[in-house]
Amino acid sequence: MLTIDFSPLFPWPLLAVLTAVTALLLGFGAMRRARGLGWRSAALAGLLLALANPVAVEEEREARTDVLAVIVDQSLSQDVGKRREITAQALAHVEAEAGRMRNLDVRVIRAGAADDGAAGPVDGTRLFKALSRGTADIPRKRMAGTIIITDGQVHDIPNDAAAKSISGPVHVILTGQRDEFDRRLVIRHVPKYGIVGKDVTLKIRVEDTRNDGGSVPVTLIKDGGPPKTIAVPVGRDHAFELTLDHAGSNILQMEVAGAAGELSAINNRAVVSVNGVRERLRVLLVSGEPHPGERVWRNLLKADPSVDLVHFTILRPPEKQDMTPVRELSLIAFPIRELFEIKLNEFDLIIFDRYRRRGVLPSIYIDNIARYVENGGAILEAAGPEFASTESLYQTPLARVLPAEPNGQVFTGGLRPRLTKTGQRHTVTADLPGAGVGEELPRWGRWFRQVSVDKRKGFSLMSGRAGKPILVVNRVQKGRVAQLLSDHIWLWARGYGGGGPHGELLRRIAHWLMKEPELEENSLQARMAGDRLSITRRSVEPDETPVELTAPSGATIRVTLKAGIGGRARALVPVSETGIYRIKDQKHTALAAVGRLNPLEFADMRTTASHFAALTRATGGGIAWMADSAPELRRVRGGRVTSGSNWLGVMNNRNFSVKSVREAPLLPAVLVLLIGLGALMLAWRAEGR
Questions:
Q1: Residue 276 CB neighbours (<10 A)
Q2: CA angle 636, 641, 642 (to 5 degrees)
Q3: Contact 491, 411 (CB under 8 A)
Q4: How far apart are alpha carbons 393 and 241 in whole angstroms?
């Protein structure tokens, strides 16, 4: 390409000064009516032009191709109907149309898939981050535009201000059908916390694009239990109550009945989690005759701010009389009826610490305690020598819920408690500090008394002399029972012989009795560990059964767990989908949330153009439906309309690179000299006349 340019011999400011001086001199000459002024002007103009040095510039240019970015949505919502097939057709059409255009490259960027390079599962469809990464090496002036092939459900569309950073028009080709029908379950309100044993209010809504009247059945499953069905009106918010049965996560699965012809049943399901918090734990501690271990129980329970402790020590049976005046007595009457009949069910745990029958508790009240356990309560008996006597609690109606029966013997002398094989797997005692591994002896201090018993039911977790149980736990219908068959745990608290984990052991016993979820001995749990799902099964007996893992999309795989220590079997499974994963074995079901409980990807599966309306308007792009017809691609120049009825514009930037430059002066020095001398001679001749 040939152009004319200047290559001045002096800087332009100096040439400007010379031109101004020349103009002043010529103006002065004109005022004086000097002869030969025209020839002098010609000579000076020629001199100034020579100093400006005009040159002919010839550039050898190479056209640079423009780049059309094509974003292909590969998110899970594209699996609905024939969207994948239509997406492939749209991509092939765009590539064919662009292939007929000169100086245009097509860069295809596939995005939105679960494994498209993100550090972990991503909630929703994110296409514009992929666009930014995929075109980072392309100069803005080479971008011919962007075409997005999607169903319209994209969750990172830039706002109007951010849209200015996108070069060229943004066009959208939609892969779904117009007026699609879908039914979905929407969570309107869920409290994050609630008090255990009380109700919380949840609010849901069923949206149906074809039906705004009537009601539909919604199935509720709490913590994997039996299903319950409620009727929910379509198109209106519906509130209902949920009772929190335990501390920690209370998970409620909800599913609305499907409708014929709807897009997908994935968004007919929803999962919510409400964290249960205990208001205060009410513990009744009934102590028999005072002993050194009584303070251990009291200090442990008093140190826990969440425990409301009621403590009675029975120092004197009712039949015992003395001559102390009543006004000098500091003891109070034992409120038997109030505690063991009226308010019995208000307690979360009852502890009998070396209690023996002394006529204080009639059999009818002890029978109340047994029924309290069977109906969901919990008792812990910390036994002393009296348990082996005729005054034992085993000689009362409570015997039917106690797992160990005394045989009349009491072992004395040094003994070191150790975990049984079951105790090495049970959550109450597994991994206790200093317990030792396998047959290794524990690094604990010795005790010096143990009540000999015969275990009738339940699990023996710790043993002592002659392999006899020291700690036995059992489930009784809805309730739980634990027996600690020695009153010498206080020696660990004092650090005798190195001490032992008394605080941790007693805490675990109490929390297991009160049904804390993390201490369930047979359970299936799952949680996220980085970008992998960690599955843990705890079992008292070895269990090699594989578990079934169901992804949010419905895909199912079988996972084999690897046995470990402490009754655990584990597996780590890489996951890429966002949503609720369901893990199930023969007895248990666990849920794990990856990302949001109810992911954006499945919130609305309908194809829509509304999300992109503002962006396409701001960038001059257009929206086309493949369901109507495949849009035509046209090459357009800057400043022209870039979209129209069933056509999408691709910018022709006419960008180029200069390979070489050749310059040639337009005024050779000899020619300038001759012109200047000739003009001066003519000026002298005119002046001499």
A1: 20
A2: 60
A3: no
A4: 42
Q: What are the distances in angstroms from CA 25 to CA 16, 50, 469, 673?
A: 14, 19, 124, 21
Check if 68-178+606-628 and 281-518 are the same fold: yes
- Average pLDDT estimate for 255-273: 86
Instruction: Give the tens place of pLDDT for each residue, 611-620.
Output: 899 899 888 9
d(CA 214, CA 150): 34
Q: What is the mean pLDDT of residues 190-196?
A: 91
d(CA 482, CA 320): 32
Contact 358, 389 (CB under 8 A): no
Is a pLDDT exceeding 60 seen at residue 117?
A: no
Question: Which CATH superfamily groups domain 523-594?
Answer: Immunoglobulins (2.60.40.10)
Superfamily, domain 68-178+606-628: von Willebrand factor, type A domain (3.40.50.410)
* Model pLDDT for residues 121-156, shown as the tens digit of each residue: 566 788 888 888 888 888 888 899 999 999 988 988
In the sheet with 532-538, reading across from the earlier edge strand, the strands are 523-529, 532-538, 568-574, 562-563
| Token pair belonging to 522 | 């047979």
pLDDT tier at 321, thresholds 50, 70, 90: low
CA torsion sign, 364 to 369 to 373 to 379? negative
Q: Which residues of 96-132 are buried (b: 16+ CB within 10 A; e: fewer)?
A: ebbeebeebebeebbbbbbebeeeebbebbbbbebbe
pLDDT at 336: 80
Q: Is 395:357 a contact under the CB 8 Å cutoff?
A: yes
Tokens linked to 632: 């035509």
**What is the Cα–Cα distance from 98 to 630, expressed in whole angstroms?**
13
CB atoms within 10 A of CB 243: 13
- Report d(CA 111, CA 395) in Å as an integer: 73
DSSP annotation string for 27-52:
HHHHHTT-TTHHHHHHHHHHHHHHHH
Fold classification of 281-518 is: Rossmann fold (3.40.50)
- Kindly report the average pLDDT of the chain as a whole number: 85
Its CATH class, for the domain covering 183-278, is mainly beta
Please state the rounded mean pLDDT for residues 583-593.
87
Mean pLDDT calculated for residue range 445-449: 95
Boundaries of every domain in the chain: 2-62+658-688, 68-178+606-628, 183-278, 281-518, 523-594
* pLDDT tens track for 627-685: 999 999 999 988 888 888 889 999 988 776 666 667 777 666 556 666 666 666 666 66
Could you tell me which residues are beta bridge partners of residue 411? Answer: 450
As given in the structure block, the two tokens for residue 461 are: 């977790």
Which amino acid makes up residue 489? Answer: I
Q: Does residue 233 sit in helix, strand or coil?
A: strand
Residue 286 near residue 312, CB atoms below 8 Å:
yes
